Every structure is written in C-alpha cells, then in structure tokens.
Amino acid sequence: MKKLRFMLLVGFLALVLVGCSNTSASTNEMETYTIIAAHSTAETTSFNEIFQYFKTEIEAKSEGRIKVEIYPSAQLGADRELIEGVQLGDVTMSLHSTAPAVNFVDDVAVFDIPFLFPDKETARATMHVDSPFFEQLAQSQEEKGFKLLGLHDQGFRQLTTNGVKVESPSDLKGVRLRTMENPYHMETWRTLGANPTPLPFNEVYTALQQGTVDGQENPFELIISQRFYEQQDYLTETNHILQAIQIIMNQQFFDTLPEDLQILVEEVMAEAVVVGNEFIDDKEAEYKEIMTNADVEFVEITPDQLATFQESVSNVLDQISQEVDEELLNTLLESVQQ
C-alpha cells in the first residue's frame, strides 16, 4: 500500500511539473513586445508610409507578438531628440535624416559629402541592406547602441530662395540660408558664399515668412509637406546632397527579441524601405506641379554651372575624410564609382 501511495504521489508530481512546463512554454511563446516608432515629419510623408507598412506587416506576420505604436510629426521630439531617445531606450525605433546623426555616430557624415551620388539608383544600390557599405555602417552604429535596420532616401535636397534667382555660386553671396544643425552642411553653403543659418525644422516656415532667412534647402517632399514653397520665389534643382534617411532601433531592445522575431523585423523593414522609395518616386511629378501652380519658378542649371558648384565645395570631402573611418569611406566611394 505504501509503495502504491508513493507511486501515485510521484505520478501526481510529474503531472504537475509537466503542466508547469507547458504553461511556461506557452507563456514564452505568447510574450509580446511593443515598438515605439517615432519620426518628425507629417503623416503624408514617406516616413509615415514606411512605418505604417512596417506596423501592418510585422503585427500580422508575428501573429500579435509585436505591437507597433507610431508617433509622427515630432510628437516625441525633433530628429536629434529622437536619436537620443533611441540611444537611451525611451524610443524603440526612429526614422530620420542622417544629418543630425553625425552628432552621435561620426561615420554617418559620409552622407554629407556634396554631390556624392549622381542619381538615386546609384545611391539605393550603395545603401542596400545587403551591400558591404551598409554592413560596415551598421557596425559603426552598433558600437553606439543603435541597430541599423535600413537606409531610405527622400530624393535629393534642392535649393529654394526668395528674391534671389540662383544659377551659380556667385548668386548666393550674402543669402541667409536655413540649414540643418550639421557642420558639413553649414560649411558647404558657407563655401558657396551663402550665410548658413541653422534652425530647428519646425521653425523654418515662420523664418521664411518673416524674412529671418531668404531661403532653405530640402527634398521636394518636405518642401511640399511643410509648405515652404508658399514663401519662396525660386527653386534651383541643385541635387547637392541626397536626403539619406536612416532607420534605427535601440540595440538592447533588438537583442532581447527572440531570433525569429529579429529576422522578421529585418525582413519587413527591408520591404518597407522599398515601399518608401517607390512612394517618393511616384510623388515627385505631383510635387513639382504643386509648386508650379503656386508660381514658383524652377531654375535648371547647365552641366557647366553644376561643375562650378561641385568644384567650389571639394574641400568638404577633405574635411569629412578626416572624421570618418577610412575603410568605410573607400567602400562607399568604390561602390558609387562601380
């Protein structure tokens, strides 16, 4: 009888342990993760398209294990504040221009080389997630606490001005030009003869309206979404710098995800970048039409005029080459040439 009781007790304990084990496994399988995804632009931009695509696909493909909350229009801060938030872990993921990111990762400055990319196709091939350049840049980001998930672009930055038609660097003399808070952008325009005036993005429209600055430079999408064109007479298609956009996640958060979810996050974001790039391409003609209808005069510069701009800012490449990793820069330049 004692032996029977002992065997029954052992059996009962075994069932309890199995039950606990199953419960634990079930709990782990259903563990959920919330991604706070923030950007500083309007909901009509490619930034929001990328995050919306990512949210829809990742929530469906993860079967609810990942939830995404999107905060557009600088609700959680401007670009620099968002980058800080990602580094600290207060914001899980951010999508922003690389220009303010140089304050956190020196190597990101390679995107500030004037006239680096001849066209968007070359840029996108160079920045693709499977490229050697992307892999090296991702390593630089990881050392600072960022997981680089993708590189999008908003097209090239263009110059807009009020009262001054710019066809050559000499036309920029004394022009008060709003720039980003980036030393290489400021040096580019200072070298070209303008008076660079760094201002936060959300202050640009008022500065143009009040005449605090005479012009600004941004890609078509932002000129339209922020309605800068309403306060400008001319747009010179300089294509001076590609508006490279990086998508970063807090590295520590990424490392806590199970391996299958890490792979899923990377795959879905790669798809989302393609969606964002296509959105930009599809909208460009519409953006130009809006500005033309608003009586903005488009100024096309000749190849000889463009060469004058390019020659004038060759010193900026020299400055950047002293601050970034030499191997990374060489990989980038070789990729562009190929």
UniProtKB/TrEMBL annotation:
GO CC, alphabetical: outer membrane-bounded periplasmic space
Highest taxon, organism lineage: Bacteria
GO terms under biological process: transmembrane transport
Keywords: Signal, Transport
Signal peptide: 1-25
Assigned protein family: Belongs to the bacterial solute-binding protein 7 family.
NCBIfam families linked: dctP, TRAP_S1
Protein name as it appears in the record: TRAP transporter substrate-binding protein
Organism: Oceanobacillus profundus
